[in-house]
Amino acid sequence: METARQIVESYRGRKLRIMEVCGTHTHEIFRLGIRKLLPPQIELISGPGCPVCVTPAGYIDEAVMLALEHGAAICTFGDLIRVPGSETSLAGARPKGAVVKPVYSPLDAVEFARQNPDKQVVFLAVGFETTVPAACLAVKHAAKLGLANFSILGSNKTMPNAYKALEGSADAFLYPGHVNAITGTAVCEELAAHGVSGVVAGFTADEIVTALAVIVTLSQTGKPFFRNCYPRVVKPEGSPAALKLMETVMKPCDAEWRGLGVIPGSGLALREEYAAFDARLKFALPPIRGKSHPACRCGEVLQGKCKSTDCKLFGTACTPLHPVGACMVSNEGACSAYYQYGDNFNG
Ligand code: SF4
Prior knowledge:
Helix content is 36%, strand content 19%. By secondary structure, it is an alpha/beta fold. It folds into three domains: 4-50 and 160-228, Rossmann fold; 53-156 and 238-282, HypD, alpha/beta domain 2 (Rossmann fold, 3-Layer(aba) Sandwich), CATH 3.40.50.11740; 298-341, no CATH class. The strands form two sheets. It has a six-stranded mixed sheet, sandwiched between helices. The chain has a five-stranded parallel sheet with strand order 2-1-7-8-9, with helices on both faces. The longest helix has 15 residues, at 205-219. It is globular, with a radius of gyration of 20 Å. The two termini are 30 Å apart. The model has no long low-confidence stretch (mean pLDDT 94). Iron/sulfur cluster (SF4) is lined by residues 296-298, 301, 308, 311, 313-314, 318, 324-325, 327-328, 335.
């Protein structure tokens, strides 16, 4: 019997463009050398599934404003600290007095607020369905403790409407298994019913190659398809507890994605009951329209319209040490993957 690897390696059919929606897949595929197995007919393109990468420059500007003009202590996952805003990053704001504290969990930020009652503490809530439940838990916990000095600056996003916005950009999606572990599979089945093909994939070498083999095989039928190739983690119903938690604390809203613009209904905002924990309301932040570096092509990279190496700043003006765009900063960013694993890519 042919193995998944043989199916992928021996494919000689029509050109197939497969979008790795998730930045973790992008990095794992590079790291494991899977690109070297692929025949020229299979092209892997990066998608918008890195939360740091799709966070627009204006969001960083808001965080910098909170730190410098309102004196708030900013708690955040480490990647966001170096993402450039319109004028500066949070790292760049530190010498001007910004207090920026890396945390490993939103609950760490709540604890920091509890220990520092004289400081306003803002957690940068950036992420997809995988991390939103933790942010919701933090807000509920802060409410339970009655903390008046904790709030979140939200830029949470959900994938379903982004898939619709990306329709036509690839022949099939490699769906992010950890997101589907929360959401379940109904949304992907619905997309397949509307002609959008895709496969949920896990993150080991076997799981990724199996998912690619399933895409290769089912693409030859000429019909739209969906398969869950990560059943050990992803159940059709997802995680009802996490979904209920998100539903209780947050509600859908429109959200701006770097490169994709505003996608209706693709964000999550705090419900009215938790408005006291919304940093934008608490500090009456004005609407901010951020600007990225004019030569940075992150927006196109995130839609699979170009490769990181097509950007003229790649590896010269833009490196992981001196990133010009978010895709070079994040551990899940496509540009950082191309930079880090350059020898392992096939095109
Ligand atoms: S290489 Fe740098 S400047 Fe170019 S698209 Fe990537 S992050 Fe942006």
